[in-house]
Amino acid sequence: MGTRRAPEAPAWTRTGPTGPRGGRYTAPVPKRLPRALLRETAGLYPLGVAAICLLLSVDLLSVLARFLVEQGATLADVLSLLLYRLPWFLHLALPVAVVFAVLLAAGRMAKDSELKAAYALGVPPAAMLAPLVGFGLVVGALSFVNNGFLEARGEAAYQRRIDAFIYARPPAELQLNAAYRIGESIFFASRVRSVADDARLANLEGVLVVEPDGTLHAARDGRWDAAARVWVLNDVESSRPGEAPTQRGQLTLPFELEATPDETLTRAAELPLDQLVRRLEVVAAAGGDVGELRFSLHRRLADAFSAAIFAVFAGAIALRVRGRAAGFAWTIVLLVGFWAVWVLSGNLFESGAVSAIAAAWLTPGLAAAGAALLAWRTLAS
Length: 381
What we know:
Oligomer: single chain
Number of strands: 8
Strand content: 15-25%
Largest sheet: 6 strands, antiparallel
Mean pLDDT: 86
Structural class: alpha+beta
Helix content: 55-70%
Order of helices and strands: EEHHHHHEEEEEEHHHHHH
Low-confidence stretches: 6-29
Distance between the termini: 49 Å
């Protein structure tokens, strides 16, 4: 009779602080399970993007329907307007849809006990979470391209198309309460409106200029000539410290700003990322108000970066849910919460309650804090 052979023990790997000789033993990680979660998440992601875009477009669809009737636009015009607006919808849909896809995919796996089986086989939560973080980083890169470049070009094209229907000629760009510091001189105009036929000219109203020696020039109107780099003021009242005011017919003052009125007055939402950075540098060097420009720049970056944070946040919750219903419920809660904070941050900036950078990064900052806490609890369990 031959000797009976004992069954071979499974191969184990040391991964923790307990057990013989100070190690905790878990089975080798089956790679198929994390890949299955990632594959199912990627399959649900386009559905989430489409659903969120549809929700965001409800108000616009009602506006475009009225536009179709009142302005005599064709269906092709309305579809082109929707296409131009699509990058704005994707600004929010791309990162937020990560939450939708991750929670529903993990909820389905939990319902079918696949996650329970994975944990029973010794698959650590970190192995399931890592692919989701990688997925979030990929979405973040796509969001960066959309937010930084496509959205601005789409917004500019959308506005041009709307203006072509509403106005006989496109309205000139306008800025209120514009202030600049050129050298030691301060230039202020209550209203700056570009000249439609010439991008190098702008009309000024309510002008006030303070020179380094304290001389004050006030004028009801004037013109900014970017080609000559001057402000030409009409009917000027000038006064020096300790002297009586004097009246002048016209006064030309040097205005050394390296930008045209058309470049300076274009809305931040219509500027691609590279042009937005250049505008920020020019206006900051001139001592102008850069709050809106800085907020627009950092919000685009923060919203793109938030995709990876949302993936961690949703992934940490997803690996603890017990079924599809729980995953769907958490999806609704998180989407409403993220949207509320995103809107609140914009309102806080507009009211002056917080700075541009703090407002722009408020949503991903709070999400990162929550993601860190949930990930720590999930990985430690």
